[in-house]
Specification:
Two copies of one chain form a homodimer.
Chain A: E1 2-3, E2 20-26, E3 29-30, E4 36-37, E5 40-47, E6 57-61, E7 88-89, E8 94-95, E9 100-104, H1 136-149, E10 157-161, H2 163-174, E11 181-185, H3 193-208, H4 224-238, H5 241-247, H6 267-282, H7 285-297, H8 307-311, E12 317-323, H9 331-343, E13 347-353, H10 366-378
Parallel strand pairs in A: 6-9, 6-10, 7-8, 10-11, 11-12, 12-13
Antiparallel strand pairs in A: 1-2, 2-5, 3-4, 5-9
Chain lengths: ~400, ~400
């Protein structure tokens, strides 16, 4: 069932138990919608050492446009070189002296794991829109298959923010016996109508760009303008009104830029455009369509009949982290998730990160994040679950 | 200085003092930025009768994509046939048995008043981007010129919501001796960073549409997709998270539509698309660029040095109306406007409309709006201002 090879992204295979980027190719993965991905290459990275009992695994799940590069061993003190760099490492919240930390790029993405830009096995051309719909449950299935292939049957902890938080929640629901602790940050049972609408407008902007060509743009090309608009919209949902006001207000931009323009340009506008340009250079537009759709479609109750039935499956000790100025998954929704878990017989604690940084606070407010996560991660493991394999 | 004629939109001239749609053409209007509009046709409508003393004029100012058609005499009980239909008429809050109500389409718009789609006097071709930048102050100058041409030197009341509210505020600041009462709804001294960013993204969507052609699309054609995306974004700022959640939640759409699509479509998405389609059929894309820029650029302190200096000019009795779920001009900002007016020596009262309908509540919550406006409009006029001309 498992084939090993060098992935197209240049990620090298290696044995579990050591640090570094690597990849693993599964012959096939059945997806929630009934389709099959065959083969499925999964790019992943690990930090720390797998304990002989294989009971010290911390799976961290990346957000929408993230990758497996959660920590950069070469630049551990640069907070931007790995997306959770300040939280992972020796002595850090995810203490690699204790945990074997794993992060895997999700199916549908474009950082080494099979996605719309990967070659279709039938003709070697990119999948593009022939790529099947993937869901958050599929991301979790892929991670589960990766871990089983590595001989890991149980997670000491699974953690993530945003779509990564949905994955952490789905892990606890889908594989209750396999998760000891779960940390869900800036995520809830499902996305609300306003956020769904924003994501849809963003996808329309991508698909309205003639360079999208029905998804059939050449590798390296694509709907730069449409994807840029989508990213600017997303950035609004990652920031907050108070944060933008404090940082930018109505200040004019220091210099204008290459975008088409109408009227004077403001600093807040060129900031968003800069963020858009950065994403457009690094991310595949079709992947953006697939992954935002996965986020939108996620509903914890799907397949279980109700929230209570879904959340009642959870055996893990849960930590739900809301962010005070989060607009995508408002703090009240994260608090409600924790309450719903407890009302369903689970054990969830809610903590709130007070920050003007909106949804992105979990990728910015390092001291506060460390303070919130460290006690939960440092405490002894759960004794209520089944014995470790 | 004033020429009278039939406007291109088929609006007929008429004398002041009677009801009906009409137009007036000024030879020229100097604009805030130094440019000149020559000529400037202004489409306007009136309801009620002008009193012999000319002291019963209520000017109502329309919002971004509105027109002079605030009331529909033929369909007075259809709340959608005129944008403030339920509030204007005999016995209504703007009681036409007392007030002579006037509404004028603003320069830059596309409902009869000169705008980017109007013929340039030099060559008869549409102005398009040759149209000068117009500001909220220019809208007010145009209204002032119209009223003076009609022999009206003083307003019993000026009122508006959103960009119309900015106009009401600017009237009170720019022509303090000419305004007895002013009603500012869902507007404040200036727009905040987040809303500025949304407007900029919307304009980028319009200009990114190849059908925009640098503004040179043929009359009747234009960037339908880009303008549609802009409108959907704007609709988000006119609604509220709680309102969308209550009305739509995650309900799937009853039927799909002609838009490009990715993944299942939801009711909230097709609702926004329907709103977009309606606007695209009725509004000029270049006008949208000009008018959103005017809203963004408005700053009450401009030309006065400070808010205090600007607001200190006000002599009118002011009513500021915030809407509890307004996201474009949050209620706290409208409250702060009223407080700033009072701290600058003025007389402002703040009232709040509690509603899930967001910024659009002033165009939807008719009973509440009536209850909030009626006492202010029914009270005797100010005795502190100069004697009526």
């Amino acid at each position: 069932m498992v084939r090993r090879e060098v992935t197209p992204g240049g990620v090298n295979m290696g044995d579990a138990g050591a640090s570094g980027p690597r990849g693993l190719t599964l012959d096939r993965l059945e997806l929630e919608d009934g389709a099959t991905l065959a083969p499925l290459t999964i790019a992943y990275e690990t930090w720390g050492r797998l304990a002989p009992a294989r009971d010290n695994v911390a799976l961290v799940c990346h957000a929408l446009t993230g990758s497996a590069h959660a920590r950069d061993d070469a630049r551990p003190d640069d907070p931007r070189s790995g997306w959770w760099n300040p939280l992972i490492g020796p002595g850090r919240a995810f203490d690699t002296d204790r945990y074997y930390v794993i992060c895997a790029n999700v199916p549908g993405s474009c950082y080494g794991t099979t996605g719309p830009a990967s070659p279709h096995p039938g003709d070697g051309e990119p999948y593009r829109l022939r790529f099947p719909h993937v869901t958050v449950a599929d991301m979790v299935r892929a991670q589960r298959a990766l871990l089983l292939a590595l001989g890991i049957a149980r997670l000491a902890v699974v953690a993530g923010g945003s779509v990564g938080g949905l994955q952490a929640l789905e892990w606890a629901v889908a594989y209750p016996e396999a998760v000891e602790k779960a940390i869900v940050i800036g995520a809830a049972q499902r996305l609300a109508a306003q956020a769904l609408a924003i994501d849809d407008i963003a996808r329309q902007a991508i698909m309205a760009d003639p360079a999208w060509q029905g998804g059939s743009y050449a590798p390296g090309a694509g709907p730069r303008v449409g994807l840029g608009i989508a990213r600017m919209l997303a950035m609004l949902t990652y920031t907050s009104a108070e944060g933008l006001e404090a940082r930018f207000g109505r200040r004019p931009a220091a210099r204008a830029s290459g975008w088409p323009r109408f009227g004077p340009r403001l600093d807040v506008e060129t900031y968003l455009q800069h963020q858009a340009d950065k994403l457009v250079d690094r991310f595949d537009a079709n992947s953006y369509l697939y992954l935002t759709s996965a986020m939108d479609r996620y509903d914890v109750a799907a397949g279980h009949g109700s929230d209570r039935a879904a959340l009642g499956r959870i055996r893990a000790e849960m930590l739900a982290v809301g962010m005070s100025s989060d607009w995508l998954y408002p703090a009240a929704q994260v608090r409600a998730l924790a309450e719903a878990i407890n009302e369903s017989g689970g054990r969830a604690r809610y903590v709130e990160l007070s920050s003007p940084n909106g949804h992105d606070a979990f990728l910015k407010d390092w001291d506060a994040m460390d303070a919130l996560l460290r006690p939960f991660l440092a405490s002894p493991g759960d004794s209520r679950g089944p014995p470790h394999e």
